[in-house]
Amino acid sequence: MNKKELVGKLADHLDTSQSAAGDALNGVLDIITAELKAGNEVNLPGFGKFIAKHRPARQMRNPQTGEQMMSKEKTSAQFKPSVGLKDL
């Protein structure tokens, strides 16, 4: 399922237009993204948890040249499903 199909199903489920459903979905995604950028987690009981995972800089090796170098520190998004979702 892609985003367009998800918006269509959401519009049918809420009995609203696809435009309104798309705005609602975009709003939710924007809020989750902003919270993760701020370093917060977003917990949705019964579904799962979105976590901002910080990865510190580390030393690594270029496999082509064998040269040692430092990777950049970064923050990435991680999703942990709830127990109810795992059982599906």
TrEMBL record:
<dbReference type="Pfam" id="PF00216">
    <property type="entry name" value="Bac_DNA_binding"/>
</dbReference>
<keyword id="KW-0238">DNA-binding</keyword>
<dbReference type="InterPro" id="IPR000119">
    <property type="entry name" value="Hist_DNA-bd"/>
</dbReference>
<dbReference type="InterPro" id="IPR010992">
    <property type="entry name" value="IHF-like_DNA-bd_dom_sf"/>
</dbReference>
<keyword id="KW-0226">DNA condensation</keyword>
<feature type="region of interest" description="Disordered">
    <location>
        <begin position="56"/>
        <end position="88"/>
    </location>
</feature>
<comment type="similarity">
    <text>Belongs to the bacterial histone-like protein family.</text>
</comment>
<protein>
    <submittedName>
        <fullName>Transcriptional regulator</fullName>
    </submittedName>
</protein>
